Amino acid sequence: MSSRIGVDIGGTFTDFILYDESGNTVTIDKIPTTPSSPEIAVVEVIKRNLDADALSKVDFFLHGTTVGLNALLERKGSKVGLICTKGFRDTLEIRRGDRDEMYNLFWQPSPPLVPRYLRIEIEERLLADGNTHTPLNKDQIKEACKFFIKEEVTSVAIAYINSYTNKKHELDTEKIFRDNGFKGQISLSSMVSGEYREYERTTTTVIDAFVKDRMSNYLNSLKKQLNSIGFKGSFLVTRSGSGSMTFDEAEDRPFETIMSGPVAGAEGAGELSRKLENINLVTADVGGTSFDTCLIINGRPQIQFEGKIVGLPVQSPWVDVRSIGAGGGSIAYLDEGGLIRSGPQSSGAVPGPACYGKGGKKPTTTDAAFFLGMLGEGKLASGLELNKSFAEEALISVGGKINLSAHDTAKGILKISSSNMADAIREITIEQGIDPRELKLLAFGGAGPLMSNLIAEELDIKEIIVPPFSGNFSAWGLLGADLLQMNARTKILRLSDESINECNNILKELFSELEKRQKIDFSASNQIKEVALDMRWMGQEHTITLKLEKEKDGKISLNSNQLKDLFMNEYLRTFGSKLDTIVEIVSTRASLRVPLPRKSETGNIKQDDIKITNNKIKCYSFKKDEIIDFNIVSRSDLKSDSSGPIIIVESTAITYVDANYDVKKDKDNNLIINNREM
Amino acid sequence: MNEELHHYKCGIDRKAEKFEVDPVTTQIVRNSLNSAAEQMKRALCRTAMSPVIYEVLDFAGAIYDNHYRLLAQAPSLPLFMGTLNFCIEEAVKGVGGENNLEDGDIIIYNSPYGTGSHPQDAALVAPVFFENELVAYTAIKAHWLDIAGKEPYSTDTVDVFQEGTVYPGVKLFSKGKLVDDIYKMCIANSRVPNSVAGDINAQAIGVKAGASALKRILSKYGIKKFRASAESIFDAGEMIVKNYLKKIPNGEYTGFGQMDSNGVEPGKVPFEIKVIIEDEKVILDMSKAPKQQNGPINCPLPSTVSTARVAMSMLAGSNEAPNEGFFRPIEVITKPGTLFHPISPAPVFLYGWPALQAMEVFYRALGSKFPEKVPASSGGCINAIVWWGIREKTGEPWADGAPHPVGQGASIFGDGATCLHHAESATRFAPAEVWENRNPWLVNRVELIQDSGGAGKYRGGLGVNLEFTMLEDSYATTVCERTQLAPWGLNGGKEGLANNCYVINQDEKFTEAAKATRVSIKKGNRVLIQCGGGGGYGKPEEREKSKIINDLKQGYISTEYLKKYYPNIEIN
Description:
The complex is a heterodimer. Chain A is built from 17 helices and 36 strands. Chain A is α/β, with parallel strands linked by helices. In chain A, helix 3 packs across helix 8 (198-228) and helix 11 crosses helix 12 (388-399). Chain A is globular. Chain B has two domains: 18-240, no CATH class; 375-572, no CATH class. In chain B, strand 10 (269-277) and strand 11 form a beta hairpin. Classes of the chains: A alpha/beta, B alpha+beta.
């Protein structure tokens, strides 16, 4: 009933996945990313898998893109002018006073996205309760408009103090700009976010203004090209805060897509968890340059409401995916104190790991794994054959300085990077008051299944799951993303039955804004309204976001005692302690979810298996601390109820199964890998 | 060696013979320890009650071995971190020594001469046992909003007893159980009991989180490997700092600093610090300091030592969070009875201010000979204000406080950064929108001060003006140092603008209140905190023309400034 295409653009590769409803088949493919015009690779990979007729039968195109992120990374976006409240011209530049590298005496923040001469103050002031203290000075706005036009500003951000409580001044300002002939993009902080903290909200608004044109051009061009080759379905793009949005909405709110890169994997993990009766998972997504991890509790990834990218805060829902610079390409080196470290520097696609033989001289995690035999014979799907003596040379260049052999250096690199990954997982679990031993580890990405035994062992996790198409799992995750929109408002209220009524009034407004924002033609009956409250003990700053799972129709029916109990239990679960004072509601959150028509089962995989010439290889067993014989098996030939040591090969990933693990295949074609000694 | 002088070696040496542990295990243990410290910090921040902890990060959490050697820390307040070994050692003495420690104990300790801080900075210390052996400590020292001194915050105490309640090392938890009697005492001795109750809760959650993370590491590697790794971690740290010191020739360099006043008497308090570089070792000779003061600007030995540790770590530590090894090449010489080594009960409430000054003077001393190694002076203070009052409508007490950032000194690497902290480097100040929700304030402006950065080949970072209107009657204690000694330039660079603080009444009359206790601020009156700029680096005539023109275009400098410092630049 609904065939769909997912295309996820990564730093090195653009991943393609097609789910064809009619034959219940899945096709995966990979193509090098074309950084200067990413749509070229997207169109190319679609064309080589589908003809016009087949394409016309596809209902959805789901896209994960880094166009917005790249605009920020490269600082290539619109020329932005900022309109702000008198006295707050320098909010962007003053930041919050903290030094990102606190032991670096010479640390410098990156320059603000809007230079000071394009930040114009306006006499106006709203109070924290939304009342007007100083009315808007309209003449100053007209002057500012003239100045921006003269300076060829193409995008304007408007961010007044306390506008999260009252949009009026910002809306009036926008109107004056339009009335006075400004034709570029305009971003309002009150539309971007209803939450307080002016540095964070202003920065987010400026980011929105900065990437809007570039994003809009990209999405339009992609839409046109896909239509011209025969696509007739809906265009969707993933959000940083999980779910997806239509291209039209993404053009309005591009900042919501900034961090959508790692989200698709988290979405896929959520869907997989829901299929397996909501088991709790932690993900280990290991790519070329980074390790991403995310907690899946009750079938959903955890959402935060502020993120950070290239040192800038983004006040927007954000799937809580933590990244560290540890991937297959991470470079190992000796630090000042003479100890081995791995990452965050990466060899990238060029020159790549030393064993690729493309000029890389520094040892990477891939070199270490290949040297130990973990990558099997070293034949990659692309046809590249890895070179062992290059790997050895690189390993010796580092290990030799501290009298380690290539073998011991390789072991060390893998142990150090897997323990770094385990520490990252430990930090996200402890924040949520969760013991990692209670979780299953879902490993994907090019090097996730390779590292999974080591990570699980560090965390005392018994069971590892390796999903189908594990190397393309992020793209697969795209296919399951619901349409989702979120809206929130900060209004600090002491918990009482009366304040719950007030929250319900806020919710009504939030949902009506969302419905206006929505540009979708799916039947309205499909909508699910979700409600959450940020709550805290009075006096605390940090809040706990309480999802009110039972409230389905967009309002709160609980009374204040019930709500307080829910909050107290959640606090106790998270922090293991109880307080008893006044409870406050800080922000009210509304989400509108439109599930896409469910795709049926996982489907039959169409992919090229790698040809295996030998069925055994000498490989290092971390368990036994010696080199032993590992079986090499192609994933499709693997029999359920196998036992390690095995190297399992598929076209986009390799799974390392040590001697103390058993492997099963479940009905959805997941590999379930169990430590039989736990 | 002068008999009267006190020599302190800042880092403790190896305790064990070399036991071979592979560098991989060492590295993994190091990362896991850093992660354990990070977990302590996150647990604390997420549960703390006072903004001073969760926003200002006015705390330090760290893990020490049973010889009080720093294993790992989470980035927070460096000056606190450098004192924690003293806190732990004294806390353990307070309960009668190691033999009286049991698994599950948490000690509370805040005696100023042991913590190096004012009594508000209270440490919670948890011994960590593994297989019935005392292996380590986790400790968090954090600033409580109020601990029942003569005022919530003071600049004019005359002995430590006016500064707050003292907990000389008593068990707050015994074998895992809260000791109710002590807990009640803590709560009773505060003007904001709820906040203190919440912060004790948070600190206890934090040290427990650290202890359980540590036990996990111990059970993975065993005590023997763990200890051997620790020794290797320290050795590696020592090498980092020594490698830096190697590159500086032996010699003695002197820097001068000055406090505006001692808080109770008029008159500046000048001091000098000698830096001696001697074969991969650095000695900070602070023994020429003036005698201990009648007002609270005395800096107890633990904080003096901490200053040396932090200053060297920021300079020579390869941008990393230090461990015990970093401190081994550092020695501090003090003279008991002086500003940097006072004797109890001399008042110490403002100990942090001379400590911060000492750091910059240390850089100044080095810069006199090696200007390329250090930055010019920053604004030189944290410009702190603590505010409090009773809410008109509800009658509820409120209190808040924050340090405010200053422009940074320029260096050979370029212009100084705008608005950062120097040593309180992870500290953040709250957004105006949060302030206006929490306190009866209207924030009028938070803006850069034109012309506040010192001119030079590289310009000093700009300072910032923060101005508030009080919407209800309230009180404030202000501590802004360096109002008299402007941020110095380096290598020919010019001075930046000095700090100050004013109360402004409704007739626009400005009253200076830079270091003042319990200043009454009536409804409708304003407070202006002027946070200074940084000093310049190199001669102004060497500055690139394009940079000068850009400074003018952005409004960082005025045409008057241009004419004064760059008279040869023509602007059309």
